[in-house]
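Appendix B, Record 12. Input sequence as logged:
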Amino acid sequence: MNTTVEQPVAVACLFTWIGFVCAISFMEAWLKFRAPGVTLPIGLGIGRLVFAALNKVEWAFAIVVSISVLMHSKFIFIMPNVLLLFIILILILQTVWLLPALDARAELYIQDKPVTTSHLHIWFVVAELIKVTGLFIIAISFFKQS
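Logged structural output:
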């Protein structure tokens, strides 16, 4: 039995995208605060830069995967494509709402101003978990047994 990969460029982008999100959101985000000398303001400043860069990289992956899907799909409304649209919706929400709101909170911390309690980080982590799960499901759907 042979396994073939449909849309190998999309698959490579999907797994690399998963790696970026896991490495940054689930490792770097909290590990940086354990490094000697990294204060909360310094860690938040680093986090703002890293997550802004990650967001740009994610959009590049989303565009490449979307182009691949559009070029190779006979039907647009099949499960992997609908799931990709859902992930892009999550990315839009992160780009226009969550990241700017978290960035504003980080700036308040950096300036040593009062910051109210918020569940934004929880929403962000949930979005990342959903996104990574969806990306994995899409990537696996491109593997075919023959």
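Residues 3-145 form one domain.
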